[in-house]
């Protein structure tokens, strides 16, 4: 009896071990596919089976045959220069026609569902569309797409091929697939755990690599302009104001190189903004982007290295650090300058060591296929150094739209987005040595305000927009300090 019981126990143990070994074998053989997220491939020019509107070319056209560019990283922020492409010869998205479709009484239910996905009310559809910008994808891009079935929007994860035309919002996120009007949302799953399905006429396209797909993260601050690479002329870049369809484009020479600025000591967002202003992307070796206020401890390549438009700078980041700068000015306080603001002042020292102004056009040729990984983060301009490794400066917004700048602990000076008559600035009070407290200069638009002191690098003054000269700051004090990153622009440089 005892021997029989012992054999029975031994048999059960053997069965359990065999079950464990079988499970391990199944895992190793690839049967974990069920644990992966199914992603439906959508090739350029291939109609969807259940689109919001018929894909007959009336709403927009994809650019077929546009080879996917090698991405710096699977995660890129929407302000990354050259993330998207543009063209001056093709109408990639007819926004007015899409408005007509969505406001047609016969499409009332579609409009309700479309607006629900977009997070707006149906009566705001036209206003919402006016704020979007048409671009072409330059990378195979993950999104959450939507079919329209039985009166409802049905979400599904989708991989859009490079060359697909989309409308992006002011944070650089794809919002609408142009050819069919399908609303899009950001991909919200782990891109490392996807299984791409090529079906329904969407054959695997040339250049597809699962390791090369891109997920777009929102820009930390709303964009004023998007820096696109001209898909018809890789030596040219396009500066497209957000909410325009190409009629207000300006171009600049994408063959010019720009020196990497000194970013050590800035936050990750500040460094991203400084690089984006020069047409350079951010690279970060990690599965997730670091916190925006994490301190940058170094960059590869280092300050002063010339890079082409769209190339990436790998940042080393201390993720355990807290915020290293004072509070950021409100979004939009450092807006772009218009050509009517006048030529740049000779005393503006916002230049790289070679003497080029930081508004010079970045880059040359098509972006290289480097394997560094971009984050592309930007901020509201909470701090930077001059591109050539100049002294960090501290600035704060004034009620008139200008900024007060205190370069390297010197006398605060004022810069603004338009010339104004200003009295001499009051003396700055200091709460900690050696960093001075920046006191904003009163303007004709309102009273003087005093900003809190900062223990880290603060934001620098506003730079000119792509292809536009900067205005000469109106100030009765000393010459303005070096310019740096501002708010809401993907890149800067004169044509």
Walk me through the topology.
Elements: H1 2-28, E1 37-42, E2 75-77, E3 84-86, H2 95-103, H3 108-118, H4 125-130, E4 133-137, E5 141-149, E6 152-160, E7 165-168, E8 174-177, E9 182-183, E10 185-186, E11 194-197, E12 214-217, E13 225-230, E14 236-241, E15 250-253, E16 258-259, H5 268-277, E17 281-283, E18 295-300, E19 306-307, E20 312-318, E21 393-397, E22 403-407, E23 413-415
Parallel strand pairs: 1-6, 1-11, 2-12, 3-13, 5-12, 17-20
Antiparallel strand pairs: 3-4, 4-7, 5-6, 5-10, 7-8, 8-9, 13-14, 14-15, 16-19, 18-20, 21-22, 22-23
Structure in words:
The N and C termini lie far apart (94 Å). The protein has two domains: 37-217, no CATH class; 219-413 and 456-495, no CATH class. The longest helix has 27 residues, at 2-28. It is globular and about 60 Å long. It has helices at 2-28, 95-103, 108-118, 125-130, 268-277, and strands at residues 37-42, 75-77, 84-86, 133-137, 141-149, 152-160, 165-168, 174-177, 182-183, 185-186, 194-197, 214-217, 225-230, 236-241, 250-253, 258-259, 281-283, 295-300, 306-307, 312-318, 393-397, 403-407, 413-415. 13% of the residues lie in helices and 21% in strands. By secondary structure, the protein is of the alpha/beta class. An eight-stranded mixed β-sheet has the order 9-8-7-4-3-13-14-15. Residues 323-495 have low confidence and may be disordered.
